[in-house]
UniProtKB/TrEMBL annotation:
<dbReference type="Pfam" id="PF08448">
    <property type="entry name" value="PAS_4"/>
</dbReference>
<dbReference type="GO" id="GO:1902201">
    <property type="term" value="P:negative regulation of bacterial-type flagellum-dependent cell motility"/>
</dbReference>
<keyword id="KW-0808">Transferase</keyword>
<dbReference type="InterPro" id="IPR000160">
    <property type="entry name" value="GGDEF_dom"/>
</dbReference>
<dbReference type="GO" id="GO:0043709">
    <property type="term" value="P:cell adhesion involved in single-species biofilm formation"/>
</dbReference>
<dbReference type="InterPro" id="IPR029787">
    <property type="entry name" value="Nucleotide_cyclase"/>
</dbReference>
<dbReference type="GO" id="GO:0052621">
    <property type="term" value="F:diguanylate cyclase activity"/>
</dbReference>
<dbReference type="GO" id="GO:0005886">
    <property type="term" value="C:plasma membrane"/>
</dbReference>
<dbReference type="InterPro" id="IPR050469">
    <property type="entry name" value="Diguanylate_Cyclase"/>
</dbReference>
<dbReference type="InterPro" id="IPR043128">
    <property type="entry name" value="Rev_trsase/Diguanyl_cyclase"/>
</dbReference>
<protein>
    <recommendedName>
        <fullName>diguanylate cyclase</fullName>
        <ecNumber>2.7.7.65</ecNumber>
    </recommendedName>
</protein>
<keyword id="KW-0418">Kinase</keyword>
<dbReference type="GO" id="GO:0016301">
    <property type="term" value="F:kinase activity"/>
</dbReference>
<feature type="domain" description="GGDEF">
    <location>
        <begin position="185"/>
        <end position="317"/>
    </location>
</feature>
<dbReference type="Pfam" id="PF00990">
    <property type="entry name" value="GGDEF"/>
</dbReference>
<dbReference type="InterPro" id="IPR013656">
    <property type="entry name" value="PAS_4"/>
</dbReference>
<dbReference type="InterPro" id="IPR035965">
    <property type="entry name" value="PAS-like_dom_sf"/>
</dbReference>
Length: 317
């Protein structure tokens, strides 16, 4: 009677293994497959009869054999379970993802449990792999991380131009000032604004004025280096912070920016619309008590450009 119960229990266990929505693979100590459940059949396209007695590495050549055998042998030696998670290694085997939410994932993300199996003699002569499909969790986390990154980026940028907002670029200026005090590296600043911008708004309308601001920002973004910080000061006024740049280098950049914008033409109802900018350039000096002094010096140079007729660069020396 006891043997009959044991057989029934084994039958139930096999039914459970076949029906659960995880992959179950049992291998001998030579990594040859002995148990291969329906999850594995469905996702690999290989039936249990064909998988039986084949090496796991033959069935899945994509497995990093050195890494995997080290992981398994360590688990066997310690007699404890071992785990791999998708955040460290997206998957053990390459299965296609069929979940409807996974437009971001062509392959299944997997967590894997490595379970040493002891025989009645106490010897570990088999190892069980349990493969969990965690694609939904992984994709949701990736989407959340992507959304958070975009939100953080938006918090740093001006909505109209996409340039750095004042709060952020001013914090960059403060950081560069501290770095200059420590390492004495050159740091320069260019401040500029669009000439007669009120006239542009009054003549062509605020939408066209916004387009002029956007075009100015676009050209500025094209001319700056990856290490520079281009931002919007407010209204039609902009800044470019140039770390590692001398006053002469900043002046050359400012003149290149001025001439590029002067040549630019926007289309306004079939007619070309041109505009210019005035610029002030300054560099950090040892007599400056704080980063605000650099702003003030560049701003005074900008004022001189406007007083001198606009569409020009003034360098504060």
């Amino acid at each position: 009677m006891a043997e009959h119960i044991d057989i029934n229990e084994l039958h139930w266990l096999l039914d459970i293994v076949q029906s659960i929505d995880v992959g179950v693979v049992v291998m001998d100590r030579d990594y040859n497959v002995e148990v291969w459940n329906s999850f594995m059949e469905n996702h690999s396209g290989v039936g249990a009869d064909k998988a039986a007695r084949q090496s796991l590495f033959t069935l899945f050549p994509e497995i990093d054999q050195g890494w995997f055998t080290h992981k398994v042998e360590t688990a066997v030696m310690l007699g404890t379970r071992a785990f791999t998670i998708w955040e460290q290694r997206p998957n053990l085997v390459h299965f296609k993802s069929y979940q409807p939410i996974t437009g971001m994932a062509d392959e299944m993300y997997q967590n894997v449990t490595i379970l040493p199996l002891r025989s009645s003699t106490g010897k570990t002569d088999h190892v069980c792999l349990i493969i969990y499909d965690v694609t939904g969790v992984a994709v949701n986390k990736r989407q959340l991380e992507s959304a958070n990154t975009k939100l953080q980026e938006l918090a740093l940028r001006d909505g109209l131009t996409g340039l750095l907002n004042r709060r952020y670029w001013e914090s960059c200026l403060e950081r560069e000032f501290a770095r200059h005090q420590r390492y004495d590296n050159p740091v320069s600043l260019v401040i500029f604004d669009i000439d007669h911008f009120k006239r542009v708004n009054d003549t062509y309308g605020h939408q066209t004025g916004d387009e002029v601001i956007r075009e100015t920002a676009r050209i500025t973004s094209q001319l700056v280096r990856e290490t520079d910080f281009a931002g919007r000061y407010g209204g039609e006024e902009f800044v470019v912070l140039l770390p590692g740049t001398t006053l002469d280098g900043a002046a050359q950049f400012a003149e290149r920016l001025r001439s590029t914008i002067e040549r630019q033409q926007l289309d306004y109802q079939g007619s070309p619309l041109t505009f210019t900018i005035s610029l002030g350039v300054a560099t950090l000096a040892d007599d400056m008590a704080g980063y605000q002094a650099l702003l003030e010096r560049a701003d005074k140079a900008l004022y001189q450009s406007k007083e001198g007729g606009r569409n020009q660069v003034t360098v504060s020396r």
